[in-house]
Amino acid sequence: MPRTESKLEKTQRADRIREAIDALKREKVNIEASGWVAPRDCYIVRYQAKGAKYHYWYYQLKATSAVFPKANKQGEFSRFKHVGKAGSQAHIDGVNSVIRRAKIEHLTSAIEDLYESWLDLYPDEEKPGHRGE
Question: Where are the domains of the chain?
């Protein structure tokens, strides 16, 4: 025969989930405060420029839509943002911004999953937006 859970045990589980959500939200805020965050669907690409004698490698942030303001045209946007040579400060900042975006997306997903788990503690109550089985 299954053991029935006391209201205290259920409350303790709900509190643990809430604490975990709060910790993840704090971590997300810290990441956002640590520096510029790249837009969604943005990544670093390497491209080659050919000179008269040599080939040069450069890096840029590339987005799926025009999100980067153009340097020479106000009000216009581009899908690309040049970040320079490997190891330049702009290159490192660009890589870090993409990493921050990935971390934030994963934390957001984990927060949503924990919230779903919290909702599962109270299955008898109908909740708007709750997943259907």
Answer: 42-123
